C-alpha cells in the first residue's frame, strides 16, 4: 500500500550519498560487520512488553480494516443506505489510510515515533466513536476517514521495533511476527465482526474497535521508547500536498476503473492526468526545498524505485486473484464450484490468512539466515507456481482444490513475499530518513491493490474463459515483479542503513 530529514543541505553532505554494489562500499561494510561484534539479543523481559504494545496497535488497525466486512449488509439496513453508499465509506477509509501512510512515518522521524503512533491510535479511536454514533452515512463517512489515520501503523511499528531490537537475526524474526499478524487475523476478525453485528448491531463493531485502540494508546505509551531521526528539521508539508493529491487521484481512478463497464472513463482519464501532474509537482518541490520529504537523490536510487516497482507489480499480480477471482470461482454455480457465500471464506480467505500467519515468523527466521532479497524471490517464485496451479484448478474446481491453492498462496505470498516486501522497506531505509521508504512502500501496496482489481478483472471480463485469462495475466505481472526484484540492492551492500551505522559504532 508510503519523507526526508535534510541531510542533503550542502555539497559535502551530497558527497556522502551511498553507493550500491560498488566494490569499495560493499567491501567496507562487510569488513566492518565481520570485525564488529553482533549486538546482543533483547531478553524476553524487554521484548515481550514491546511486542505486546506493537501487536496491540497492529491488531487495532487490522480490525479497522477488515472487521466490518461481514457487517456491511447490517449497516445498510440500520442506516437505510444503499450498497454503493456503504461501499464508499469503505473506499474512503482505505484511501485515507494510503494517504496518511505517505507522510506520518516521516513525521514520526522528526517529532517522535511513539508520539505519532500514540496520536494515530487516539485519533482512530475517536473515528471509531464517531462511526459508532453516526446517525447517517455522511457522519459514518467522516468517521471512517478519521479512522484512516491509522493507515501506517505497521510500517511505523516496524521502524520502532528497529530502534529497540539491534540484533539483526532477532529483528528479522520479530518483524515476521508483527507483519504476519497484520495479515493473519483477517478472517478471524471478520468472523467476530459478523457475530457482533448479528447479535448487537453494527455499532458494537465500532465500539469494539474503539476499546482496542484505547488499549493500544496505553500499551504503546507504557512499553515502547521514544525515538527520532538524528536530524529533525521541519516537516516538508509543501512536498506532502502534491504527493497526497497525486496518490489520491490515482487511487480514485483505479477504484473507478474497477467498475469496468459502469466506470466513468472520462473521470478516470482526468484523475490520472491530475495524478501525473501531482507527481511532477512533487518531484520539482523536492528538488528545491532545503529539507525535502524524500531527497531526489534517494528517489533515483534502486533501493527506492526497484523496491516500490516490485511491490506494485506483486500486489497487482496476486491481490485480485486471491481476494476476487478465486472466491468468485468458488461461488460460481456454472463455471465454478458453486460454494455458498457463507462458506466460501472458510475455503479460501481464512485458510489463506492463517497460512500467512503461521509461516510469517518462519519467513523472518529464513531472512535472518539467507537474506531478505533471496527469501523474497523464493516467495515470488512460489507465488507464480501457485497461480499456475490455480490456472489448472479453474478447469475442474472444487472445495478441496481451492483450499489447497489458498493455503499454497497463503504461504508463498502472505507468509513470505508480503513479509519480505515490508521488511525490505525497513532494512533498506537510510538511518537519517527511516520513514520515507516504508511510507512510500505502503503507498505502493495500496496502489497495487487497486490496480489489481482494475487490470485483472478487466482482462477476465474481456475473454470467454475469464478466470483463466485473469490468472494468466497475474502470472505475467508476477514474472515482471520477479525480474525487477533482482534490481533491489542487498541491504548489506548499502553503507547508510541502520545496520551499517550500528556496525560502525
From TrEMBL:
Gene Ontology cellular-component annotations: plasma membrane
TM spans (from-to): 47-65, 85-104, 116-135, 141-161, 173-198, 204-223, 235-254, 266-285, 305-326, 346-367, 374-394, 400-421, 442-463, 469-488
Location within or outside the cell: Cell membrane
Keywords: Cell membrane, Membrane, Transmembrane, Transmembrane helix, Transport
Signal sequence region: none
Domain Major facilitator superfamily (MFS) profile: 50-492
Keyword Transport in annotation: yes
Predominant location: membrane
Domain of life the protein comes from: Bacteria
Gene Ontology MF: a single term: transmembrane transporter activity
UniProt name for this protein: Transporter, major facilitator family protein
Native species: Corynebacterium pseudogenitalium ATCC 33035
Amino acid at each position: 500500500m508510503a519523507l526526508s530529514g535534510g541531510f542533503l543541505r550542502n555539497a559535502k553532505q551530497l558527497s556522502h550519498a551511498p553507493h550500491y554494489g560498488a566494490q569499495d562500499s560493499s567491501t567496507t561494510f562487510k569488513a566492518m560487520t565481520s570485525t564488529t561484534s553482533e549486538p546482543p539479543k533483547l531478553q524476553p523481559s524487554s521484548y515481550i512488553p514491546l511486542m505486546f504494545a506493537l501487536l496491540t496497535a497492529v491488531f487495532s488497525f487490522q480490525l479497522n480494516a477488515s472487521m466490518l466486512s461481514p457487517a456491511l449488509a447490517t449497516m445498510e439496513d440500520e442506516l437505510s443506505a444503499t450498497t454503493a453508499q456503504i461501499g464508499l465509506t469503505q473506499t474512503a477509509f482505505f484511501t485515507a489510510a494510503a494517504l496518511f501512510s505517505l507522510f506520518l512515518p516521516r513525521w514520526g522521524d522528526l517529532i517522535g515515533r511513539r508520539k505519532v503512533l500514540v496520536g494515530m491510535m487516539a485519533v482512530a479511536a475517536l473515528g471509531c466513536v464517531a462511526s459508532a454514533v453516526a446517525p447517517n452515512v455522511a457522519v459514518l463517512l467522516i468517521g471512517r476517514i478519521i479512522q484512516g489515520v491509522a493507515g501506517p501503523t505497521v510500517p511505523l511499528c516496524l521502524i520502532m521495533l528497529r530502534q529497540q531490537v539491534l540484533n539483526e537475526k532477532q529483528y528479522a524474526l520479530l518483524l515476521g511476527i508483527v507483519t504476519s499478524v497484520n495479515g493473519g487475523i483477517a478472517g478471524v476478525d471478520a468472523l467476530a465482526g459478523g457475530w457482533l453485528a448479528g447479535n448487537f448491531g453494527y455499532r458494537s463493531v465500532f465500539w469494539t474497535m474503539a476499546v482496542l485502540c484505547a488499549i493500544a494508546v496505553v500499551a504503546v505509551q507504557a512499553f515502547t521508547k521514544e525515538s527520532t531521526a538524528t536530524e529533525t528539521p521541519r516537516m516538508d508539508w509543501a512536498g506532502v500536498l502534491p504527493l497526497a493529491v497525486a496518490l489520491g487521484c490515482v487511487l480514485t481512478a483505479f477504484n473507478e476503473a474497477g467498475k469496468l463497464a459502469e466506470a466513468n472513463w472520462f473521470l478516470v482519464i482526468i484523475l490520472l492526468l491530475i495524478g501525473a501532474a501531482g507527481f511532477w509537482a512533487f518531484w520539482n518541490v523536492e528538488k528545491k526545498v532545503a529539507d525535502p520529504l524524500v531527497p531526489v537523490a534517494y528517489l533515483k536510487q534502486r533501493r527506492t524505485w526497484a523496491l516500490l516497482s516490485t511491490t506494485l507489480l506483486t500486489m497487482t499480480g496476486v491481490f485480485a486473484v486471491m481476494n476476487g477471482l478465486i472466491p468468485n470461482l468458488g461461488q460460481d454455480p456454472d463455471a465454478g464450484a458453486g460454494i455458498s457465500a457463507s462458506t466460501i471464506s472458510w475455503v479460501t480467505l481464512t485458510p489463506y490468512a492463517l497460512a500467512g500467519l503461521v509461516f510469517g515468523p518462519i519467513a523472518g527466521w529464513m531472512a535472518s539466515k539467507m537474506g531478505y532479497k533471496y527469501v523474497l524471490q523464493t516467495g515470488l517464485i512460489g507465488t507464480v507456481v501457485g497461480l499456475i496451479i490455480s490456472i489448472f484448478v479453474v478447469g475442474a474446481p472444487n472445495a478441496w482444490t481451492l483450499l489447497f491453492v489458498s493455503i499454497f498462496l497463503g504461504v508463498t505470498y502472505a507468509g513470505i513475499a508480503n513479509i519480505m516486501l515490508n521488511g525490505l522497506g525497513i532494512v533498506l531505509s537510510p538511518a537519517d530518513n527511516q520513514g520515507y521508504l516504508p511510507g512510500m512502500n505502503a503507498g505502493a501496496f495500496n496502489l497495487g491493490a487497486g490496480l489489481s482489481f482494475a487490470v485483472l478483472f478487466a482482462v477476465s471480463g474481456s475473454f470467454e474463459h475469464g478466470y483463466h485469462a485473469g490468472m494468466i495475466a497475474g502470472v505475467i505481472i508476477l514474472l515482471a515483479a520477479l525480474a525487477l526484484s533482482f534490481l533491489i540492492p542487498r541491504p548489506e551492500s548499502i553503507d547508510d542503513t541502520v545496520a551499517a551505522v550500528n556496525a560502525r559504532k
